[in-house]
């Protein structure tokens, strides 16, 4: 046997520990299983893609694009949007 040291920020470790322990494992067991899967499949078994937005998010994106196409006001950042919303209330 040999040891492997992995450096990761504290919050990531805590979050990962919570998840693997919920399944009844510990981080060492999951790491060993990951290494075995790499060897067994002769690949790195990771999905390196961005998650797809859900239907509600896709509809919100379409709605925002439609507003912009009809001359709706755009904002450079959230602060600008909030300032505009607050000034409209006055």
Describe the structure.
The protein has 90 residues and is an all-alpha fold. The chain is built from 4 helices and no strands. The termini are far apart.
List the helices and strands and how they pair.
Layout: H1 10-22, H2 27-41, H3 55-69, H4 78-89
Key traits:
mainly alpha; 90 residues; single chain
Topology pattern, helix = H, strand = E: HHHH
Radius of gyration: 23 Å
Instruction: Tell me what portion of residues adopts beta-strand conformation.
Output: under 5%
Described by strand count, sense and barrel closure, the largest sheet is:
none
Give the rounded overall mean pLDDT: 91
The span between the termini is 70 Å
The shape is elongated
The computed structural class is mainly alpha
Contiguous runs where pLDDT drops below 50 for at least 5 residues: none
- With helices defined by DSSP (H or I, 4 residues minimum), what is the helix count? 4
Percent of residues in helices: 55-70%
Number of strands: 0
Task: Summarize this entry quickly.
The protein is an all-alpha fold. It has 4 helices and no strands. The longest helix has 15 residues, at 27-41.
